[in-house]
Amino acid sequence: MGEKKRKEASSSVFVFGKKNYKFMFIGLACIALGFILMSGGGSDDPNVFNSEIFNFRRIRLAPTLVLIGFGIQIYAILLNPNKTND
């Protein structure tokens, strides 16, 4: 009888709701896009300098996207899925 009560009490409940996971995937996609935009711009020859590594996309846009993605992740974790709008 005690074992039956323990099984009923230990029902699996997800910590996050559907809305939390949706925001998490959006944040993850934003972070991945930022890292993809940050890649490249190198040179095959180490004696040749390629100034393309200092363009707007790699210096400003990509790190901003990564930080926005981390902010979305924090929001997704802190979002209360059980909150009702009155």
Model description:
This protein is elongated. The protein has a domain of 47 residues. The chain is mainly alpha-helical. It contains three helices and no strands. The model has no long low-confidence stretch (mean pLDDT 86).
Identify the notable features of this structure and list them briefly.
86 residues
The overall pLDDT, averaged over residues, is 86
Largest sheet: none
Beta-strand level of the residues, as a percent range? under 5%
Order of helices and strands: HHH
- Low-pLDDT stretches are none
> Count the helices. How many?
3
The helix fraction, in percent, is 55-70%
First and last CA, distance: 42 Å
Overall form: elongated
Q: Which value, in Å, is the CA radius of gyration?
A: 22 Å
Overall SS class: mainly alpha
* Tally of strands: 0
Topology (elements, then pairings):
Blueprint: H1 2-9, H2 18-38, H3 56-78
Entry summary:
The chain has 86 residues and is mainly alpha-helical. Helices cover 60% and strands 0% of the residues. It contains 3 helices and no strands.
